[in-house]
Amino acid sequence: MTMVHPSVHPIEAPPVTDHAVAMPRHTLKDTQGMPGTLGGFLLRSLQFSFAVVSLSVMATTSDFPSVTAFRYLVAAVSLQSLWSLSLGIADIYAILVRRGYRNSRIVSLFSIGDGITSTLTFSAACASAGITVLIGNDLNDCAQNHCSRFETATAMAFMSWFAASPSFILNFWMLASK
Amino acid sequence: MTMVHPSVHPIEAPPVTDHAVAMPRHTLKDTQGMPGTLGGFLLRSLQFSFAVVSLSVMATTSDFPSVTAFRYLVAAVSLQSLWSLSLGIADIYAILVRRGYRNSRIVSLFSIGDGITSTLTFSAACASAGITVLIGNDLNDCAQNHCSRFETATAMAFMSWFAASPSFILNFWMLASK
């Protein structure tokens, strides 16, 4: 019982450093809803659709220019729809070329733009909701006003803000966790 | 010309790992405005003061309960003032015992609470602003309404929101960068 084959068996050393570098550092990078993902594109579509519906419904009422808050709502949802359309196109491009947005500057630009447009949409929706409730509940004056259209436009603006919030929070989180 | 001193000179190895562990990982941890710092306490004081002034001014008008948005403003700034008072006391405690809030759960609780209260305050301020502008500019009916008091209360609620936003953003950033 002696060692008959005292030969050296070479073992491949595991490439420790290369492996560590190849590991993803940020697990949130490919979360659905981030810019450049299908979830992000769906969020942009929802924002755009709700903003356009809100704009159309408000624009069909003949007397919206007489109230400052309703004019402000029209301006805010117009801006929101343009912003969401642009970012949706950017998402489609990123999906087609199979790349995400990793650049810190672009993500901070997206985050700031999302913060501004969603805050404007939310403030306009709140102002319109205050006036709609004033007309409908406090003054009971729906007979000579388009209460249902005002309510629909306000609700759609709120829905647009609901769809815009995840985009803003995810972008901000991605920016902060870098 | 031969080597006359072929002696080995020992060199102290630098303590790489210990040094790396001792380095601070998060440079944002002691930024002024975070919970448990003097800046954080000042922000809380500003939020509390503006919310209390807004509440007092709105409560002195006799006809605020007839408008839903003004009742909502009173409720929202009451909640904001209670929240800011509690967090301000927590900041004073942290300054006195010379410790910050590093616990991830507490910071996420602060962040969520800040998000909710500041959103409520902002929405109430926007709704009140819409109605104040409707009364003052669109209907020109300031003669039989307390326009200036409504405007003051709304402006103070906006100021309270402005002071609440940095707290929320810093807490959220601190939470995301952990």
UniProtKB/TrEMBL annotation, chains A, B:
This is CASP-like protein. Residues 34-163 form the Casparian strip membrane protein domain. Homodimer and heterodimers. InterPro entries: CASP_dom (IPR006702), CASPL-5 (IPR045009). Its main location: membrane. PANTHER family: CASP-LIKE PROTEIN 5A1, CASP-LIKE PROTEIN 5B3. The chain crosses the membrane at residues 41-60, 72-97, 109-135, 155-176. It is found in: Cell membrane. Keywords: Cell membrane, Membrane, Transmembrane, Transmembrane helix. Belongs to the Casparian strip membrane proteins (CASP) family. The keyword Transcription regulation does not apply.
